[in-house]
Amino acid sequence: MRASATSFYGMILSLAMATILAVVPAQGQIKQRTIEAKAGEDWHHAQTGVAMPAALGGFERQYIRDLTENGLDVFAQYHGDKGRTRVTLFFYRAAVDSVPLWFDAANQSLRRNVDFLPDSSEYLSSTFTPPGQSNASGMMAVYSTKGGDFKSSGVAMMPLNGWLVKIRFSSEELSPEEMAVLLEPMLNDIQWPEKIVSAPTAVPILSCAGKLKLADKVSRIKPTTTDAIIGGLTGALMTEESPEVEEEAVVYCRDPQDFGRLSIYRPDETRTGYLLPLGDAGRAASVSINDIGGLIGGSKGKRYTPILMRLDQNVIFPDLNKLPTPQTLMAATGDNAAISSVTTWPLSSGSNITINVSPDEDQ
């Protein structure tokens, strides 16, 4: 969303020469799989160098599962004999590396889940300094629940070298105070990698100053091969590299409009696009103005590029003539009309762009 026209043209010239373009369908969704791990032993996550402990905060590990084929979204469930306190530990590589963004998405989901948290109130919301880091880059929230079966519930999240670590907990037996105190010993139970880049201090997300003007009724602009290439380069520019040094974080705000169970976020208060988290586990849809495509294609009106952001791939869809509502954006990134895609993982292989528009369709 922030690249200049000059950088776009430079990227077009260099990547068009270096990238092999293929015509294949976008990658499908992967079902979860159970990871075999010996009881009583730590399980090592190769991509992050972290070990999921056999016990976390005094609770035994029950199973480990992966929502991908290559360890990009792994979680482990922990609880005691009667399961009255449940803790889930997640490691995942988010499409956008921002603890405030994904923590806010998780927290918004908790607040809306009135069936799970009846008559609840926020007991604690704070930042914390994760192990091996020097800044308060982690965030946590604990809720007191008076109704239903639970006494407390909450979520904690921290960055880890371009990945995110999340701890989700709910208890029928522990008070909010006791759950909050458990966070530090749980983090100490985890075996962390030796080298950790200290991430920027986490800043809670605030409401944006004004509302975006969004449209329910939009039209797709017929894509050309050039559009597909520009879309692929846009997706490549959104790729997050593994951090070597601490960098200044992009500041997001939450658009104040009520979209039901959905929330949209705008980097640096932009009014020309937004990001829509699809849950709180790193996947998202985004839409941003495509000034370069308009100049090259000779469009008279504005055009906006929708992108489905997976954990290992950004999938680009045909441009829209108006900035869509979140529901419309989900529809615009939910069919088989993708015009291109770009890999974002593994980082060692670079960004491979795939074109799904035949040159014949340009006629």
Describe the structure.
With 363 residues, this protein is α+β, with helices and mostly antiparallel strands. The chain has helices at residues 5-18, 99-112, 176-189, 225-237, 291-297, 326-332, and strands at residues 33-35, 43-45, 50-52, 55-56, 59-66, 73-79, 85-92, 120-128, 138-145, 152-160, 163-171, 206-207, 252-254, 265-267, 273-277, 284-289, 304-309, 313-316, 340-343, 353-355. Strands 1, 4, 5, 6, 7, 8, 9, 10 and 11 form a nine-stranded antiparallel β-sheet that branches.
The outline comes out as globular
Average pLDDT level: 84
Total strand segments: 20
Q: What is the CA-atom radius of gyration, in angstroms?
A: 21 Å
Q: Report the oligomer.
A: single chain
Number of separate helices:
6
Low-confidence stretches: 1-28
Order of helices and strands: HEEEEEEEHEEEEHEHEEEEHEEHEE
Assign a percent range to the helix content. Answer: 10-25%
Distance between the termini: 29 Å
How would a textbook summarize the main sheet?
Answer: 9 strands, antiparallel
What class do helices, strands and sheet pairing give?
alpha+beta
User: How much strand?
Assistant: 25-35%
